[in-house]
Amino acid sequence: MNDRPNDLVRIRPQIKKTIQFDNMSADERFQNETLRPILKLQNPLFLVVFSNYIEKRKGVFYSLNLEKRLRYIENSLIKDQKFRNSVKGMVLGQFTVAEYKHYILNSSALNKRMMQMVIERLKDQVQLFEEQSSAQES
Question: Is the pLDDT of residue 133 over 50?
């Protein structure tokens, strides 16, 4: 029996800080109920994928100061369409069919929310990329 929708939802981490209000927009509710848990679930993958992205670009990231590293993260997900689409696919692949149907109704706005959340997630963990560069240099 194919229980994909329940299996997908079951493996997502619970996010306890999320507060739901009656007056929330549908996009905001989708962000809190679907995107946040998926992004948390996919975080280890995002870290490895971004490390690979850095390496494929000759490790320029490691020579940048903190401010420029943060900008690099942002630019990689805003300006590099191929990378952006790859990350977006990692999130969309975790949607149930019902969630995907909701997503396509307002995909442009939800993509902006999604990418902004991934950007902030990577920026908040920028020190992990520093640790990786140190390990690679030894």
Answer: no
